[in-house]
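2024-03-11 09:14:02 INFO receiving multi-entity request
2024-03-11 09:14:02 INFO entity count = two
2024-03-11 09:14:03 INFO echoing inputs for audit
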Amino acid sequence: MPINYYIFLSIALFCIGIAGVLTRRNAIIIFMCIELMLNAVNLLLVAFSKMHYRVAAEAGNLSTTAGSDGQLFVFFIMVVAAAEVSVGLAIIVMMYRNIHSVDVNFLNRLKH
Amino acid sequence: MGKRRKRKTNNQSRPDSYRDRGNQEMNITQILFWLLSVMALFGDMMVITSKNPVYSVLWLILTFFAISGHYILLNAQFLAIVNIIVYAGAIMVLFLFVIMLMNLNKNTEPQKHRWVKFAGAIAGGCLLLVLVAALRNTEVKGQSALLNAGNIGLIQNLGKELFSTYVVPFEISSILFLSAMVGAVVIGRKE
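2024-03-11 09:21:47 INFO inference complete, emitting structure
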């Protein structure tokens, strides 16, 4: 499958995530849109990893492990995302406990 | 193992025909690619347009399953399984629990003004336009991603790589998890 298709699919997923962050006010939905953007990046990393593997395999090196770095980066992104979600949801729960809402507009009190 | 190697040598012997065939005939892999892409994009759109946050979470789970399907098509089986277990399993259940704990529904959902929403959608669309226009004519060295073949995505290879080259980041990530756990407990505690 041409790599350009994967690039455009990832761009579309990423931009939908950006639009979600800009159009919603619920903190949890904004957080979910960030997860969605991370997943778009993950998909593109895996596609590029398979592309590099293909280049190395077509050069004649059949037992190559070229491209496995990309998949390990995706693994580490998932690890960091899991840690990020646990802390982020704790912050959102604390915010809900204090102001009884998940509306991010109330967070402009941080300014004053 | 022997079967897989045979399939790979088949791909080796006809890389040009494999590449040039393009969209002329739709084989099952291409049909699955388009189906999963449409599923992912539709799920995404529903995530950001659903009024009820619980529906948003459910659509996001559908999107994660579509992306896992893409990983399986790319023969990245380990990542597909981890994506389902960690994202669709653990993280989304956490989101769902928090939403149900706060009793959020359609009526409590804060809404932005219509024009602000419109501006956000336009901004996202502009970014899409700029990125697509910038990358439309890119020439990439490999040209295409290898589907259905190649064993770098199997757990055997990734495990070898993870515990030899990347063993230090792997151990550091366990410290990250420990600090995240402590942080979540400290933040969530009632003072």
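2024-03-11 09:21:48 INFO post-check: The helical segments of chain B are 2-13, 15-20, 28-49, 53-73, 77-102, 114-135, 155-162, 167-188.
2024-03-11 09:21:48 INFO post-check: Chain B touches chain A through 92 residues (CB under 8 Å).
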